[in-house]
Design brief:
The structure holds 2 protein chains of 2 kinds.
Chain A: H1 11-38, H2 48-67, H3 70-85, H4 93-121, H5 140-143, H6 154-171, H7 173-176, H8 208-217, H9 242-256
Helix pairs in contact in A: 1-2, 6-9, 8-9
Chain B: H1 2-12, H2 15-29, H3 51-69, H4 108-117, H5 133-145, H6 169-181, H7 185-188, H8 227-236, H9 252-264, E1 276-281, E2 301-304, E3 306-307, E4 322-329, E5 333-341, H10 356-359, E6 379-385, E7 406-412, H11 413-418, E8 425-430, E9 438-439, E10 448-454, E11 457-465, E12 483-490, E13 502-503, E14 507-511, H12 517-542, H13 545-552, H14 554-565
Parallel strand pairs in B: 1-4, 1-14
Antiparallel strand pairs in B: 2-4, 3-13, 4-5, 5-11, 6-7, 6-12, 7-8, 8-9, 10-11, 12-13, 12-14
Helix pairs in contact in B: 3-5, 4-5, 6-9, 8-9, 13-14
Classes of the chains: A mainly alpha, B alpha+beta.
């Protein structure tokens, strides 16, 4: 067999192994990496749509690499052509096995296509998962607001924070939890889980005016892309004064043990 | 200015954040929030008691515990009035979840266990993820200091758990017999729904209202839901509450049997694990009563409810925390079976029982609202959007919004009892919680219902035609669609009326349809096309080499050449 003379593995199989390797990495290892980055309690699996995108990219990348060189491309094509054409029987048991595998693949391929088409055209019963923008753009009217207590004396700030903590525990705790970890007693029932403020991806990534906007206008203040229809966030502007909201914000950050994002200097 | 603004947004939504946001998004998609009921590892070595540790404990307590339990440890923090059950008063050394004999103070390890895992179904969260082991021991030292007299010089008798008797049908049956013999049903009800004859009159040692536990909601067993946890409660009693110890009246074997019976009452479903209710298609008439065997052929859905905490009057102590749904349809009609646990049957309604205006003075309705039983009716409502959504966009789950109406089927216990209407259901439309619900005209009231209350459980069957004439106000059911569905519930005895209620987020109902013939046809077509394509490819590569060589290049010829030579 002349092919065996070639050193190493055929590039087609190398490509296949690379793509499978990437898939396994995304499936098995990546959730733990994201867990570590996000500091979450559970591994965070890669969503199906994203997985598909990554694998398409990996596939395109491999093809570009293979097609970059004529000999590589020929080598890549070889097993495919061989699979379609089949081997001559006289070459011994090895070729017999190859031809059995070939037959199996040739039969399986149309069946798989048929199965996929069937699944696509029969009704599905699973709930739709829609991607949601977690941090939509803050309206300009809120953008420049500053927490008045940050500029007050140390005593005033301390007093305001203390009052804020009582207000937080009374008003926000049922959903966002005593520890501000998004695990209050009401949290279980909502599809859109209350934000976990101890998570580095929530209030730690926004400026205080952003938090003020979210608390004051609640779910109805969210744009479409943030799916306001699933949010239980009240319009606290109806029931709390601005001052109370700023106090709650102080408390939120303190309870969660994170700092607000510093606003950039505006010209 | 615009530029600066854009810069901020760009940095705050930079590449790293993008990935992070996507990852975080998954947290929101996570359908289930499970209470941890597993064993807590209690460290063998613990911090010794010392002045320094007491001071540390006080610091942690003030920072984390005082808002509910009070700076004085009297269970009277600023949040206490809004919580049901009320936070523990630490001044008397009385604790519910112990491994010590009735009347004895708890072990430090008992307090450690409760702090570490929290108490399901209450405002007490798990602290294991926040406080280190040392911090937990420090806070325990401080908590005990509030009732020091009740700990000092007392050597509590520790309950040792012997060999567990495992569950079997016979064991459960004997447990049931003991349940009857010990008169457990007087408080906990015939089937353990917490609906016994004295269930509405119980108080704890502090004079606050308490309810007997509903065994069906097994995920809310406060001291743990394993047989050994329940066994321990029977043995130690739940001090401070009317729940006595059975250590003297039942031997160990009997307590195990009783524990297994109590466990067997649990409903098998976990609320929130699924969000799609599948309505089953049948030929012929739909069931008209909850007893119909046809319901058992369907797949149920358990929907978790939260208190209505979105607008005043906010209520975080909703009585009904799970609603169980089933659905069946035929070519004309759809029927829903709605089941929920409610300790009391309330079929009269007197609006003057509740002064809503007064309750709206505060941001939340205080827990004392439920201490006195009210003469208000029980009710539930099923909610659908009037227009089926075409994309992800839906009306808001709390009674819709302006421009996106919802259709409510509100079942009233008083209407069911009076029998004056063909249906206990009043059909309404909602366009946001700030607007009053609009009852539909009589001509649009087309539902039919039947309901009953037995042993602490309401069951209502609600039937309507799949489509109606009133297309501007009614949901029109179509098969093959995911139809948003939400529920709301009111327990009249607990003062639930108007927006003092429990409510769910959006789930879905879908009319299960047999796979259409077209799907088979398309599948077959897929197989044929793929096979033809394959054959074409094979023919192509098998063609005389010259032809292939021309189109595929020199390298290919070489490979083929080698092969045919071999």
């Amino acid at each position: 067999m002349q092919k065996q003379k070639k050193p190493g593995m055929n590039i087609f199989y190398k490509s296949l192994i690379t793509i499978i390797g990437i898939a396994l990495f995304l499936e098995l290892f990546f959730p733990y990496l994201s867990q570590w980055i996000a500091g979450s309690e559970n591994p965070l699996p890669v969503p199906g749509t994203l997985m598909f995108m990554y694998l398409v990219l990996a596939g395109i990348g491999t093809l570009v690499y293979v097609a970059s060189d004529e000999t590589k491309f020929q080598e890549f094509k070889e097993p495919l052509v061989e699979m379609l054409r089949g081997r001559e029987q006289k070459e011994g048991p090895d070729d017999k096995t190859h031809n059995h595998v070939r037959m199996a693949i040739l039969v399986a391929f149309p069946l798989l296509v048929g199965w996929y088409v069937f699944n696509q055209s029969s009704p599905s019963l699973s709930a739709p998962t829609s991607l949601r923008i977690q941090h939509p753009t803050i309206p300009q009217t809120y953008e420049k607001l500053k927490n008045p207590f940050r500029e007050a004396s140390v005593e005033e700030l301390e007093q305001a924070t203390l009052e804020g903590r009582v207000l937080y525990q009374k008003n926000c705790r049922p959903c966002h939890g005593t520890k501000a970890a998004g695990d209050g007693p009401m949290a279980r029932a909502f599809r859109l889980k209350p934000a976990n403020f101890t998570d580095p991806g929530t209030i730690a990534t926004v400026v205080e005016s952003y938090a003020f906007w979210r608390i004051k206008t609640g779910a109805p203040g969210l744009p479409r892309e943030a799916s306001p229809w699933d949010s239980a966030m009240p319009v606290w502007g109806d029931d709390l004064t601005d001052e109370e909201i700023w106090k709650i914000i102080l408390a939120e950050y303190q309870t969660a043990g994170v700092d607000p994002r510093k606003p950039e200097k505006l010209e | 200015m615009k530029q600066a603004y854009a810069n901020i947004m760009e940095t705050s939504l930079g590449a790293g954040r993008h990935i992070l946001s996507l990852v975080l998004l998954l947290i929101f998609l996570q359908p289930l929030f499970l209470y941890s009921q597993q064993e807590v590892d209690i460290p063998g070595t613990r911090l010794p008691e010392s002045e320094e540790n007491l001071a540390k404990g006080k610091e942690i307590y003030t920072e984390r515990c005082s808002f509910c339990h009070g700076e004085e440890g009297d269970g009277g923090g600023p949040v206490a009035d809004y919580l049901f059950p009320r936070p523990r008063d630490f001044q008397f050394g009385v604790f519910k979840f112990r491994t010590t004999q009735d009347g004895d103070p708890p072990l430090d390890s008992d307090l450690y266990r409760t702090i570490s895992r929290g108490i399901p179904g209450t405002a007490m969260p798990e602290w294991g993820s926040l406080l280190s082991e040392d911090e937990r021991w420090q806070v325990i030292q401080y908590v005990k200091s509030f009732g020091a007299d009740f700990f000092e010089g007392i050597e509590p008798v520790v309950i040792e758990i012997g060999d567990e008797i495992s569950a079997s049908e016979a064991v459960v049956a004997e447990g049931r017999a003991l349940y009857e013999k010990m008169k457990c049903a007087e408080c906990h009800g015939e089937h353990g729904r917490g609906d016994g004859s004295s269930s509405s009159t119980l108080m704890n040692d502090w004079g606050y209202k308490v309810y007997p536990f509903n065994y069906a909601e097994s995920w809310k067993f406060k001291g743990g839901n394993r047989a050994r946890d329940i066994y321990m409660r029977f043995t130690t009693g739940v001090n401070g509450t009317p729940m006595p110890t059975f250590a003297l009246n039942l031997n160990e074997e009997e307590r195990w049997k009783l524990a297994h019976y109590v466990k067997s009452v649990a409903r098998e479903v976990v609320a929130g694990s699924e969000v799609v209710l599948v309505a089953k298609l049948i030929d012929g008439a739909l069931p008209t009563s909850a007893d119909d065997a046809a319901w058992q052929q369907t797949q149920g859905l358990a929907i978790p409810l939260a208190g209505q905490i979105i607008t005043k009057p906010r209520w975080q102590n909703n009585s009904i925390t799970t609603i169980y749904l089933r659905a069946i349809y035929n070519s004309d009609e759809i029927a829903f079976l709605v089941e929920w646990d409610d300790r009391t049957k309330n079929v009269t309604h007197d609006d003057s029982e509740v002064d809503l205006e007064a309750l709206m003075a505060d941001t939340y309705v205080p827990a004392s609202h439920l201490y006195e039983e009210k003469k208000l009716r029980d009710a539930i409502s099923l909610q659908f959007p009037v227009k089926l959504p075409t994309g992800p966009e839906k009306p808001h789950f709390f009674w819709g919004q302006a421009g996106k109406k919802v259709n409510l089927w509100k079942w009233h216990a008083d209407r069911a009892e009076s029998g004056e209407h063909q249906s206990a259901v009043l059909e309404l439309n909602g366009s946001g919680y700030k607007n009053a619900l609009q009852p539909q005209p009589d001509s649009s009231q087309t539902t039919v219902s039947a309901s009953d209350w037995q042993n602490g459980t309401w069951r209502a069957v609600i039937r309507r035609s799949l489509t109606t004439a009133d297309k501007t106000n009614d949901i029109q059911f179509e098969s093959g669609k995911l139809i948003p569905l939400a529920v709301q519930a009111w327990d009249g005895a607990r003062g639930e009326t108007d927006k003092i209620m429990g409510l769910s987020a959006w789930g879905y109902v879908t009319l299960d349809s047999p796979t259409p013939y077209s799907a088979y046809l398309y599948g077959l077509l897929g197989v044929l096309l793929a096979a033809l394509f394959e054959l074409w490819l094979i023919r192509r590569v098998r063609r005389p080499s010259a032809n292939v060589a021309k189109s595929e290049g020199v390298g290919q010829t070489a490979v083929l050449g080698m092969d045919s030579g071999a």
